[in-house]
Sequence to fold (407 residues):
Amino acid sequence: MKASLQTIATLPLLPSLWIVCRLISKDLERIQDSISYDEDTATASTVGTQLLLFIALGILGHVGTNKLIPSIKYYMLKRGITGKDLGKKGTSKENNDIPEALGIVPGAIFLICLMFCLVGFATNHPSKLLDLNSALLSICFMLFLGFTDDVLEWPWRYKLFLPSVASLPLLCCYEGSRSVVVPIPLRFLLMIDGELTTFGKLLCYFVVVDTNADGSIINLGVFYLVYMGLLAVFCTNAINIYAGINGLEVGQSYIIGCAVLFHNLVEIQCDSLSRENHVFSAMIMFSFLGVTLALLRHNWFPASVFVGDTYCYFSGMTFAVVGILGHFSKTLLLFFIPQLLNFLYSIPQLFKLVPCPKHRLPKYNATTGRMEPSTTTTTTPEGTKERIICCILGLYFRYNVAQLIFD
Fold:
């Protein structure tokens, strides 16, 4: 990846960094005020300085990943864990062996960064120590699964089942609400004039409808845990399926990660009631974005490494972790709009209703030196611009349109 392209790649991070600078400046003002009034400066330091330390770890993770990938690449080539780049057909590089499963490098560096975060974060937020340990366990499990899949090529039935097992530590330590707010236009289905409707009474056999809130809140109970388990399966496989082009797996993860981080920082700046949860999520995202941006340098077209299922599962579980333990799983789905559309569009192919070509990839045009989209009728356009626009739409819906639907 050229230096100019990497500079452009950092642009989605700028809004988040601007918010961090504002939070740090507020911390400095508090410290100055505490010195002026002879107060304890330790109590004046708050979230801004914590975020600064998380950024430092993210930078170290970026540098470590960038330095380590060339070395690990050599060992992958030596052991024969390689593949051919179908996107380079018609070029002089079409027969070159490309090392696979290099997602193990950012995954391992990320876990190391998270362990250092555990020390500092648990000191200020001891109640979140269990969450952090469960996050480490789930991500580590999926990283291991992804690497073994790249080496052993697991059948799809295992790929769908094992993420559910990996999400069990998250569900076991989940202590948040299991209730959901019913959209205003749908509340008449549950209660009318303070009385439960027939549908509302039927629903009470499975869930709890809050009659004191006029049917605006439903406690899903165990069904909410099932939903979060399915969310982990969706996130891991959504990144994995929406792939096949140099930089696509890493690129979409980077864009979604930037959107998640921006959402966390906005909630922190607004002193949200779940501020501690968003600090926890931001801590994970800074390290994740650091290692992801380093991997993107080597996976950008023309890719010198393949990330493999190792990175896809690792990144998908990371998003599931922050969505579940950060208590914004529904907002997270707004950032997965392209993946949701791709899933809905692929349902006829998944159930064998229409033919599904094995390789739906763009082709390299030697005349223009560019990749051109495939003419297969079952292919959807895929690009970075669309993913950025969808994440922006998700943020707009979360902070503007949602006010018209929910209280």
Remarks:
- Residues 40-45, 377-382 have pLDDT under 50 and may be disordered.
- The CA atoms of residues 82 and 98 lie 5 Å apart.
- The two ends are 46 Å apart (CA to CA).
